[in-house]
Amino acid sequence: MKITLVKKIMADGSPCKKCGDVLQKLEQNNQMQYIDEVLVADERDSNSDGMLLAAEHNVNRAPFFVVEEEGQPVKIHTVYFKFAKEVLAQKTSEKEELKEIMNDNPDLDFI
Q1: pLDDT tens for residues 14-68?
Q2: Strand order in 2-9's β-sheet?
Q3: What CATH number does the domain located at 2-104 have?
Q4: What is the C-alpha to C-alpha distance for residues 68 and 97, in angstroms, rounded to an integer?
Q5: 51 and 29 in contact (C-beta within 8 Å)?
Q6: At 66, which helix (H) or strand (E)?
Q7: What is the dihedral of CA 81, 82, 88, 92, to 10 degrees?
Q8: What residues contact 60, with CB distance under 8 A and at least 6 apart?
Q9: What pTM value is reported for the model?
Q10: Which phi and psi (to 5°) does residue 84 adopt?
Q11: Which residues contact 72 (CB under 8 A, 6 or more apart)?
């Protein structure tokens, strides 16, 4: 299995805040050891490796994870907690997953 993390640099050159938060979680949970490659999607350079990979997989948010397993279709994860649970087999709470989804999609609302 190969796992690629794509983090973003904003158009003004600043790092993506959410990307920093996810990197911190990965480090705190000793999960960086499972990440094979880290690419940067630089909004100032549409040809940066991360921007090209995002375009290839039609991903419009960062950070995201690309999971490649031999003989399997490529899987894209844009929610850290779901990625950690499904790929890294880490226990996460549904509340944490929902909070991240809601933060990423402010137009959503609970019923």
Answers
A1: 999 999 999 999 999 999 999 999 999 999 999 999 999 999 999 999 999 999 9
A2: 37-42, 2-9, 64-68, 75-77
A3: 3.40.30
A4: 22
A5: no
A6: strand 64-68
A7: 50
A8: 54
A9: 0.79
A10: -60, -40
A11: none
